């Protein structure tokens, strides 16, 4: 049975910013001839790893709302320079825009059951174009439109 992970996307204010950040990482990885997969390091290795690897995704909370996801490819046990153990959540670099769902702040990551996960938006190209266009709006206007359910 599949389970997803959900994490705060710290330092990112929009789906458009997440896309641009990921594109820049991909350019650097191509230039360095490294694999085109992204990863996020976390201190805790999921106890439900088998379920996460059974089609799970990493959902990102951006400004208090689940807004996008990446398909998880694998979970690697890694160490930092001091030998501290970490879990590298390795995921496909493709940003998938989801329906927007409110989510309170939390630390680390949490499990997200399949039934609670927001659906992907049907037309990803249009969703990404819209995300880029929304970024041009003033932040307070974007927040108000989201509150009204218009974004």
Backbone CA Rg: 16 Å
Helix content: 25-40%
* Sheet/helix structural class: alpha+beta
Give the SSE order as H and E letters. EHEHEEEEEHH
What form results from the Cα inertia axes?
globular
Q: What summary fits the major beta sheet?
A: 7 strands, mixed
Mean pLDDT: 89
N- and C-termini, Cα separation: 32 Å
> Treating each run of at least 4 consecutive H or I residues as one helix, how many helices?
4
| Beta-strand percentage range | 25-35%
Low-pLDDT segments, ≥5 res: none
How many E strands?
7
Number of structurally distinct domains: 1
**Oligomer classification:** single chain
Pfam family, one: DUF1489
Protein name: DUF1489 domain-containing protein
Organism: Dongia rigui
InterPro entries: UCP032025
Chain-wise SSE layout:
Layout: E1 3-8, H1 15-31, E2 38-42, H2 49-52, E3 57-62, E4 65-79, E5 85-91, E6 96-102, E7 109-113, H3 124-134, H4 139-147
Parallel strand pairs: 1-3
Antiparallel strand pairs: 1-7, 2-5, 3-4, 4-5, 4-6
Walk me through this protein's architecture.
This protein is of the alpha+beta class and 151 residues long. It has one domain. Helix content is 27%, strand content 34%. The protein has 4 helices and 7 strands. Strands 1, 2, 3, 4, 5, 6 and 7 form a 7-stranded mixed beta sheet that branches. Strand 4 and strand 5 form a beta hairpin. The protein is globular and about 45 Å long. It starts with a strand and ends with a helix.
């Amino acid at each position: 049975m599949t389970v997803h992970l959900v994490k705060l996307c710290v330092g990112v204010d929009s789906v458009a910013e997440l896309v641009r950040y990921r594109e820049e990482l991909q350019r650097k990885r191509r230039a360095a001839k490294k694999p085109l997969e992204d990863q996020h390091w976390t201190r805790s290795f999921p106890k439900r790893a088998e379920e996460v690897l059974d089609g799970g995704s990493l959902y990102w909370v951006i400004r208090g709302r689940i807004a996008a996801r990446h398909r998880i490819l694998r979970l690697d046990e890694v160490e930092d320079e001091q030998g501290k153990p970490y879990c590298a959540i390795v995921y496909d670099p493709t940003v998938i825009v989801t329906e927007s769902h409110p989510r309170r702040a939390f630390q680390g990551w949490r499990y997200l059951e399949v039934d609670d996960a927001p659906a992907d938006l049907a037309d990803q190209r249009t969703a990404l174009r819209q995300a880029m266009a929304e970024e041009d709006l003033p932040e307070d206007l974007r927040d108000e439109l989201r509150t009204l359910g218009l974004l």
